[in-house]
Design brief:
Keywords: Hydrolase, Membrane, Protease, Transmembrane, Transmembrane helix. The protein is mainly beta and 430 residues long. Helix content is 13%, strand content 39%.
């Protein structure tokens, strides 16, 4: 069986890069987005059909990777009398928002090892007798070999990863109190977490974080709540978010979105990446983040049901019509020993239904999985024969996403991309 579709492996590592349209009579844009919600540590391929007229543009979201050209003063003026208490609000947040610095070991073209540095923000949300706990975005610490909390040029504190949930883009770090200098420990303050379900459009919103480098730690930008219950898709993950026009800059990821009561109502995570758009930033609501934070704190991981597909492609209706293939998800790789492998799903299969529901988008799959728990059995309908399109139905027992990281199998069952430990987690956990 061969479907006339090709995967562009050359773009696989450019997961946060800007999409480029290929223009022709009919051009297909294929972008690999690593880290979706179906398989657990999986890759996602999204197919786009571009007609000859390529004048239209699509809006993309980025993890606060680009500068903001808006005017914070304009946002401030849109909130009547807000300037009278902003300083007090920021004073109450002092010591609760920190600068998260990561170091990543990389090889250059000459195979020499170099250290690259990343920057983000974090919120202190819990402490016990021995530790201080910080929440940040999972993408802030992705691929990090070491993590530390920066305070000034002479003082920084090692941080360790308690757990991360890439699907929700959240991670919990901790500092050991025994490693925190006394003067820094005295200034640490646990943030007050607010009720994001109670916010209204137009209310004051303050973003606090560390944009554009260590020198700008605890930078404050002011705006309002522009929207609630928004849904965006970043790197294959569907996120429910708060929209704000408070400036979200590079390094703000993981920082706090604060209300007029100095309560954290969201965790800054993304902004619209478009030169024609200003002042559209997004934060994960605390109502969504808090239970995940608690589970990461308690268990070090979040249990999510997964099919066990390592890499796949969404085939929308336009592509299906053009290539005479079914609408659904094409399977590129199946995790070795996974639920999908046990059910007999192979590379090249196209999944058209799960539990009788048509698969027309990645969001549909995410929604179906969210309705189930690990151990539930689902019926998967797939097409394997290109000529007859005869459906095949298999029963699949959903497994924990964390269990799908142990290598993959190609069409002939050969294992790929597995290290000695069988663990492909990018995080260093003490």
């Amino acid at each position: 069986m061969d479907w006339d579709l090709e995967k562009d492996d050359g773009q696989k590592k450019a997961k946060k890069g800007k999409k480029k349209a290929l223009t022709a009579v009919v051009a297909v844009l294929i972008t690999i987005l690593v880290g979706g919600a179906i398989g657990g540590g999986i890759g996602v391929t999204t197919w786009y059909l571009n007609k000859e007229d390529s004048s239209s543009t699509s809006t993309g979201y980025s993890f606060a990777q680009n500068g903001y050209s808006g005017n914070s003063v304009q946002a401030l003026l849109s909130v009547p009398q807000a300037d009278s208490n902003i300083a007090d609000i920021c004073g109450k947040m002092e010591g609760s928002v920190v600068t998260v610095v990561t170091q990543i070991m990389m090889q250059n073209l000459f195979q020499a090892t170099q250290t690259a540095e990343g920057l983000g923000s974090g919120i202190i949300f819990e402490e016990d007798a021995d530790h201080v706990y910080i929440v940040t975005n999972a993408h802030v610490i992705e691929d990090a070999n070491t993590v530390y909390i920066y305070y000034n040029d002479t003082q920084s504190v090692p941080a360790y990863v308690r757990g991360a949930d890439t699907s929700a883009d959240l991670a919990v770090l901790y500092m050991k109190k025994s490693e925190i200098p006394e003067d820094i420990r005295a200034g640490i303050k646990v943030a007050t977490l607010g009720d994001s379900d109670a916010i209204r459009v137009g209310e004051l919103a303050i973003a606090i974080g560390s944009p554009e480098g260590k020198a700008f730690g605890n930078t404050v930008t002011v705006g309002c709540i522009s929207g609630t219950q928004r849904e965006i898709t970043v790197d294959g993950n569907s996120l429910k978010v708060i929209q704000t026009d408070a400036a979200i800059n590079p390094g703000n990821s993981g920082g706090a979105l604060v209300n007029a009561n100095a309560e954290v109502i969201g965790i800054n995570t993304a902004k619209i990446n478009d030169t024609e758009v200003e002042g559209m930033g997004f934060a994960i609501p605390m109502a969504v983040a808090k239970p995940i934070m608690e589970e990461l704190l308690d268990k070090g991981s979040v249990e999510r049901p997964a099919l066990g597909i390592s890499e796949y492609a969404l085939i929308p209706e336009a592509i299906a019509d053009a290539y005479h293939v079914p609408v659904g998800i094409m399977v590129y790789e199946v995790s070795r020993g996974s639920a999908a492998a046990d059910a007999g799903i192979r590379q090249g299969d196209i999944i058209t239904e799960i539990d009788g529901r048509d698969i027309t988008s990645l969001e549909t799959v995410t929604e179906i999985l969210s309705e189930h728990e690990v151990g539930d059995v689902v019926e998967v309908t797939l097409i394997r024969n290109r000529n007859t399109h005869e459906p095949i139905k298999v029963m699949l027992t959903l497994q924990n996403q964390e269990e799908t990281t142990g290598g993959t199998e190609d069409f002939w069952g050969r294992s790929e991309r597995e290290d000695d430990s069988g663990n492909r987690s990018p995080f260093t956990i003490e």
